[in-house]
Structure formats: structure tokens, C-alpha cells
Specification:
Blueprint (H helix, E strand, L loop, with lengths): L7 H17 L10 E2 L16 E2 L2 E2 L1 E2 L2 E4 L2 E4 L5 H24 L13 H19 L7 H7 L5 H17 L4 H8 L4 H12 L3
Parallel strand pairs: 1-4
Antiparallel strand pairs: 2-3, 5-6
Helix pairs in contact: 2-3, 5-7
Length: 201
């Protein structure tokens, strides 16, 4: 929620209206999460800003804040927002390249008999490659970094690969393949179940 006023007096009146509405509806604004930004004119800037309070608490004055993803500054310049978009563009390019070149795992849907060490080695290298590409610290959470980037982690890719194989085989017109796919003791289904159990999915 953003309130705009041409004066501090007007801002105080708007805040009073909000406080009255909150009181009537059993609500309360959080002053700790509320901020005050004063826009500066081109040729002059106010030397003194009277205090502005919400629920009796002084609002912190800031030089910038983010609203709906856009960075608004007191001088109304867009430099910081352009820099934000530049950084976001670089990250998007890196993630796109990572997905194109590092998530193929050709024939991985057929991996039904391998040691845990072999799988862990590939998973760790996959995680480290993503950290290196995005410049993330080596100790950051793997699940967290993939979630923040809206990118599949190693186990998600494996589940999708195996699930896709099972789906295609079960829909096959070949009756022998369908029989193989429906076997409860089959290696593919066994791996699919293990992948879900291992990650709590």
C-alpha cells in the first residue's frame, strides 16, 4: 500500500484515515515495516522534514524503496532500477544456459543400477556448477539456491526423467513394453519410488 501526498500535513491526514479504518475493522498497521520517502525537487531539497508517525511510532525515512518490483528513489531517477534489471538479465541468461547445457542427463532415465557414490558425485558436481555460474558461495543451501532461481535440482530432474519414461512406456502400443512398465518389481518403478522417498516428495 502506498500513500501519496503533496505535503507532510496531507500525509498525516491520510495516515489518520488509515488508523481509523484499522481500528474500526480490528486491524493494525505495522509501523516497523512502513517507510517514509520524500521526493526531492530538481533545484531544491527540503532542509527539515517534520516527523511522521503511524500508531504513535515514528516512520523511518528512506532514500529508496521497491514497489511492485520497481525501485523508487527520492530523486525520481531510474538508474537503480536499470541496474536491478541489468543484474536480473545477467542471471536469466546464466540460468537459461545452465538449463540448456547442464540438465540434459542423456539416458539418465535408464539408470536403475548404480552405487550411491556415483549418483552423489554427479549431484554434487551439478550443484557446484550452478553455484559457480551464479557466483554463489560454496556453503549456500543447494535446495534454496535452486528454489530461488526457479530451477530444478538434481533429484527433480531425475524424477521427471524417470516419470516421463514410465509414462511413454505405459502408453506404448507395444504390449510387451506395457507389461514391463506395469511390473511392481521392475527396476524403473523401483528407482522412481526411491527418488521420491529419498527427497520426501
Amino acid at each position: 500500500m502506498v500513500l501519496l501526498s503533496p505535503s507532510i500535513c496531507g500525509m498525516r491526514k491520510l495516515l489518520a484515515i488509515c488508523e481509523d479504518y484499522a481500528d474500526q475493522h480490528g486491524l493494525k498497521y505495522n509501523a516497523d515495516k512502513s517507510e517514509l520517502l520524500v521526493f526531492r525537487g530538481r533545484n531544491k531539497s527540503p532542509t527539515y522534514i517534520p516527523p511522521v508517525k503511524l500508531n504513535g511510532l515514528l516512520l523511518q525515512r528512506v532514500a529508496q524503496f521497491k514497489y511492485l518490483g520497481h525501485i523508487v528513489t527520492e530523486d525520481l531517477k531510474d538508474d537503480l532500477d536499470i541496474e536491478r534489471e541489468r543484474r536480473a538479465l545477467a542471471v536469466r541468461v546464466k540460468i537459461t544456459l545452465f538449463k540448456a547445457f547442464c540438465q540434459t542427463f542423456y539416458t539418465s532415465s535408464l539408470w536403475a543400477n548404480h552405487t550411491q557414490r556415483a549418483g552423489n558425485t554427479l549431484r554434487i558436481q551439478y550443484n557446484n556448477a550452478f553455484r559457480l555460474l551464479l557466483g554463489l558461495p560454496p556453503y549456500c543451501s543447494a535446495s534454496g539456491m535452486f528454489a530461488d532461481a526457479h530451477t530444478d535440482d538434481y533429484f527433480a530432474i531425475m524424477r521427471k526423467k524417470v516419470g516421463s519414461l514410465m509414462h511413454r512406456v505405459r502408453r506404448s502400443s507395444n504390449s510387451l513394453l506395457r507389461v514391463f512398465a506395469e511390473r511392481l518389481d521392475g527396476p524403473t518403478l523401483g528407482r522412481f519410488i526411491k527418488l521420491h522417498l529419498r527427497n520426501g516428495a
